Amino acid sequence: MRKTEEFSFDYSEEIKQSKKGFWGFVYEWIDSLMFAVLFILIIFTFLVRLVGVNGNSMNPTLKNGDWLAVQSVNTTVERGDIVIITQPNALGKPLVKRVIAKGGDEIDIDFFDHKVIVNGEVLDEPYIAEPTSLMGNMVYPLTVPEGTVFVMGDNRNDSTDSREKYIGFIDEDYILGVAKFRLLPFESFGGVE
Fold this sequence. Notes:
It is built from one helix and twelve strands; from the N terminus they run αββββββββββββ.
């Protein structure tokens, strides 16, 4: 003989939910929204910064108007990184440039053969717009002081960078962070190389 199972349903939870009504729903929605906003603020204040590109000095890698996500915490700067520089300069604005040499490196630029040489090795630079011919007023070869970096734009002949004495070497303390990701425009969304 089969036993019939008895089902019981607790209506108390359903009654509690219906009593919450509209204001309960609004409260829960606002609570979730505030948590999300707080989370985003913490991420973008302490871990990642948003930076806009202003100018053409990083063409073809970055374009005027691009928006970048910049890693700003525990960032070790390496040769080839694209960095955001806040060091005061004659231009009066932050710069977006590529690190070419670090402290202790010797850099030489052959403007006739259009070669950038770091520690005796010619750099392979598939990211530049055209061969380097803009000289600036630095005298080469030179050694990059410890705690600083030598930076250049990818659009070598339309970039104000470490080749000019009024920009010069960049103190690593003035590097806001390393560009990791392009957020805008959407058609260029993705990592920054």
